[in-house]
Amino acid sequence: MINSALKNGPPGDLAIWIFILAEMSVFGVLFAVYAFDRSNQVELFNLSQATLNRVSGFINTLILLTSSYFVVRAVSAIKRNDSSACAKWLIGGMLFGLIFMTVKSFEYYDEFSHGISMDTNDFYMFYIALTFFHFLHVLMGLIIFSFILFKVIRGGYTSTEYHGIETGASFWHMVDLLWIILFPLIYVMH
Amino acid sequence: MNKTLTIIWLVLVLLATVSFQIAHLGLINKTVMLLLAAITFYKGCLVVNYFMDLRSSYWVWKASIFLYLFVVLMVIAIAYLRALT
């Protein structure tokens, strides 16, 4: 079984998948703690949640989904040995990642300028902790992609050697997957 | 393949819009809560299968992520249903 799992493993480096599972577990615990803490303070959580900018949360969901789509197209392009298209899709994915961070930064600025902080109440503590932890993952993804893009432009990847791109893409899709849970949890469910 | 990926992206955008509209209209009860959890699970499955491209990998990899999604969303749903009662 272990041989089959390793032989027919997931795309990219095995180490990134161990990292992905570890990161997702941490987020999973935080999601569960948030949900159960909320069930003891429903009124407070609902009132605080109503102050969030739901539209910008929705826009960021669309941005991240589109970014993930661009990245998957970049992987598809390199499999066809089309480095030029791969670089273009990757730049598109990174650009949308940057837009995500910009929108989120404006959201934070608006909230912090209204005196909201992690000390305000439990809801904001979870909201800031979860979204900022996710924000850092987006930043990390962009740093990883910068190195990958540099190698793509230099012709370092081909249709037979694209392991690095798949590794970076897998991390990026994890970031997307986490936001897919975060968005309804923090912005929608009340 | 690229056409399939584009369709998957459009489906994900559509499902995200449905979730947003549910919140926007304030439609929250037990049934809607479970519907939101189901939509989120389905979106996660699409990302795992088509974006992460785990379809052709050994089943354990796919099962690990699906199990994660199922357990996390079930725990969230239970906590929210507990709060609604």
Sum this structure up briefly.
By secondary structure, chain A is mainly alpha-helical.
**Helical content class of chain B:** over 70%
Rounded radius of gyration of chain A (Å) = 19 Å
What is the general shape of chain B?
Answer: flat
Radius of gyration of chain B: 15 Å
* Helix percentage of chain A: over 70%
Number of helices of chain A: 7
Q: What name goes with the CATH superfamily of the domain at 63-190 in chain A?
A: Cytochrome c oxidase, subunit III, four-helix bundle
**Total strand count of chain A, please?**
0
- Hey, roughly how much beta strand do the residues of chain B contain? under 5%
Kindly report how far apart the N and C termini of chain B lie.
46 Å
User: What is the CATH C level class of the domain at 63-190 in chain A, in words?
Assistant: Mainly Alpha
The parts of chain A where pLDDT drops under 50 for at least 5 residues are none
Indicate the structural class of chain A: mainly alpha
The amount of beta strand of chain A, in percent, is under 5%
Folded structure, characterized:
The complex is a heterodimer of chains A (190) and B (85). Chain A contains 7 helices and no strands. Chain A has a domain at 63-190: Four Helix Bundle (Hemerythrin (Met), subunit A), CATH 1.20.120.80. Chain A is an all-alpha fold and 190 residues long. Chain A is 82% helix and 0% strand. Chain B is mainly alpha-helical and 85 residues long. Chain B has one domain (2-84). Chain B has 3 helices and no strands. Chain B has helices spanning 2-24, 30-51, 59-84. In chain B, helix 2 (30-51) packs antiparallel against helix 3 (59-84). Chain B is flat, with a radius of gyration of 15 Å. The model of chain B has no long low-confidence stretch (mean pLDDT 90). The interface between A and B is large, with 48 and 47 residues.
